Amino acid sequence: MAAENIKHAFFCAVITLIIAYPILGLNLIPSGAVVSLEGADGSTIAAIIAAAVVVFLFQLFRDSIMARLGFLSRVNPLSGREPMPQHKRARLESWLLTGIIVLALFWPFFVSRGSVDLATLVLIYIMLALGLNVVVGLAGLLDLGYVAFYAVGAYTFALLSQYTGISFWMSLPIGACLAALFGLVLGFPVLRLRGDYLAIVTLGFGEIIRILLNNWTHLTGGPNGIGGIPEPTLFGMEFGRRIKEEGNTSFHETFGIAYASEHKVIFLYLIALVLAVITALVIRRFMRMPVGRAWEALREDEIAARSLGLSRTAVKLSAFTIGAFFAGFAGTVFASKQGFISPESFVFLESAIILAIVVLGGMGSQIGVILAAIAVTILPELAREFSDYRMLVFGAAMVLMMVWRPQGLLPMRRIHIELKDQG
Amino acid sequence: MLEVKNLSMRFGGLLAVDQVSVDVQEHEIVSIIGPNGAGKTTVFNCISGFYKPTGGQILFEGKEIQGKPDYRISRMGMVRTFQHVRLFGNMTVVENLLVAQHRHVNTNLLAGLLKTPDYRAREKRSLDRARYWLNRVGLLDMANREAGNLAYGQQRRLEIARCMVTEPKLLMLDEPAAGLNPAETRELDQLIVSLKEDYHVSVLLIEHDMSLVMGISDRINVISQGRPLASGKPEEIRQNDDVIKAYLGEA
Ligand SMILES: Nc1ncnc2c1ncn2[C@@H]1O[C@H](COP(=O)(O)OP(=O)(O)OP(=O)(O)O)[C@@H](O)[C@H]1O
Ligand SMILES: [Mg+2]
């Protein structure tokens, strides 16, 4: 046992050296037309060796360290608490949600432009995570290519506005429906696959869409992306200083106020807020409808569900399509917010982050997912001081979280339908 | 209404079911009995579409159904229970019954989102049907409990209620009395007879409890090691020498 441990720890340390040395210890120095290779200085080498030693020690004593970490979950004061009765919890939840929404409505008028911009991004992630939550949390399908549908939504708006001059409001349903259509078409052949296979195929699909966007240069502009995507208008009022589209009026002139660049940002934020609230409400409603119960039944016991006449493909497809629909929604808002999109925005990391939000929040739980979306989007911003290491900090936070609370921030508690007394 | 002709099912080298024929007429309780591992559950799995039979023919109301997907067969009006109870354990008892009625509620997403009057009416009807059947199997008090927390006998009854809310024509029960005490078995006995008498459902039953089988079956099919051994009325089976040797004698 001990010998086994030492061997394993030694192996891990060697791997660390093999990986870390070329990455950190060797530098490429461009000098004119030639590139020369240079070893790093002593301190870096020392750091690499120190890292290997740390890995060695950690692996050697891993069992006892992990046991210590597991102890953390016992420190958690909330872990042993009695669950609240359902009606009390539902009431508390709806009060909390109403409060948050009211706060969110007024908040942007008192903070900086940058904060509002970040908050819009958070809302986009909330929409994405709520959509993916349907697929992963409720229907139990591991989708690693969710970002593809986000891309479809964003590119639909970008392309339509470029080629046909369509407005944001027209494009919103079109983008969402097109993304849903993609979900339907992809899901149909793929959803017979189970677990891991499904994950791999969806991962592949996400990459295919990105590569397609990258290479279909004459349509999508390839890696250069598409710019000049218009902002949303309010009943034909534009928020820019000068009117771009003929027939539109400008917001600040109509209301006779001075032009301020904040208006545009706040307006976009409010749109994202409304759409995120709609997303949450619609999905909440779905959860109590026959579709929602079918997702759950199929996840709990597929054989029993099928014996009652539920078609596996149809039920999974509905979850996949609905999830894709909301990704398309989010994509349209994203394109409009950025004004410029390129395949860079739709890499696998994006899918991974959205999935991380769902898992961190507690699969299936809407409030948990919303909190996690806020945390995951804002934390890296706060951790900017750590610059290069912020992804590392992010990763460490995730690992700790999973040790501390593997079921997520706020694990899903089902909203039961109750049979009332004879009514 | 159900006719199984020369059904065979092979798993690799093992011929689990060999040329078995069973038929169920309307308003009839037909039992399949046989020693452990005889292939009874496999016959059920073939009929309900979980397995694709390797030979033979299955007709339901004159239509061939072998190899059709399981959910289609269930929708035609043939619903089954399982040897090991399969409930949706995290859902409440009512919700288990609502899942089963998914086709009775409007499946149109928009109607559900907007809560149209038609949708509400359907939803109410399915709740009423659930309430009726819960009352019928004596589980009304448990309606809002999680199904996984019920006692074993209650879970068995819930599984039958869950089949009944789909309004089947043929109910297939796989060892419904397994694990029940004598009092519960007697109740089950009455329930099954009442399903036939009052709700006009035919029943295909797999059971080991001889007194139950002999008491309520109109006809019995005996299979042993995948092969048909005998079939006929209960009294004929009781006197059949082959059956006594192969099955009753062993017990
Ligand atoms: N999916 C399968 N793959 C391989 N062999 C199987 C499969 N299902 C059943 N068998 C085999 O088929 C034979 C019949 O099994 P079956 O479950 O139908 O018996 P049974 O009559 O229901 O028995 P019991 O009374 O114990 O429930 C057994 O030998 C079993 O091992
Ligand atoms: Mg069996």
TrEMBL record, chain A:
It holds the Pfam family BPD_transp_2. Keywords: Cell membrane, Membrane, Transmembrane, Transmembrane helix. Residues 5-107 form the High-affinity branched-chain amino acid transport system permease LivHM N-terminal domain. It comes from the Bacteria. GO terms for cellular component: plasma membrane. InterPro entries: ABC_transp_permease, LivHM_N, LivM-like. One of its GO terms (molecular function) is branched-chain amino acid transmembrane transporter activity. The chain crosses the membrane at residues 9-30, 42-61, 94-112, 118-139, 146-163, 169-190, 197-213, 265-283, 314-334, 346-379, 386-404. It is found in: Cell inner membrane. It is a multi-pass membrane protein. The keyword Lyase does not apply. PANTHER family: HIGH-AFFINITY BRANCHED-CHAIN AMINO ACID TRANSPORT SYSTEM PERMEASE, HIGH-AFFINITY BRANCHED-CHAIN AMINO ACID TRANSPORT SYSTEM PERMEASE PROTEIN LIVM. NCBIfam families: PRK11301.1. This is L-leucine ABC transporter membrane protein /L-isoleucine ABC transporter membrane protein /L-valine ABC transporter membrane protein. The lineage of its organism: Bacteria, Pseudomonadati, Pseudomonadota, Gammaproteobacteria, Pseudomonadales.
Automatic annotation (TrEMBL), chain B:
The keyword ATP-binding applies. CDD domains: ABC_Mj1267_LivG_branched. Residues 2-250 form the ABC transporter domain. Pfam families: ABC_tran, BCA_ABC_TP_C. GO terms for biological process: D-alanine transmembrane transport; L-alanine transport; L-isoleucine import across plasma membrane; L-valine import across plasma membrane. Keywords: Amino-acid transport, ATP-binding, Nucleotide-binding, Transport. SUPFAM superfamilies: P-loop containing nucleoside triphosphate hydrolases. It comes from the Bacteria. One of its GO terms (molecular function) is L-valine transmembrane transporter activity. GO terms for cellular component: plasma membrane. Belongs to the ABC transporter superfamily. This is L-leucine ABC transporter ATP-binding protein /L-isoleucine ABC transporter ATP-binding protein /L-valine ABC transporter ATP-binding protein.
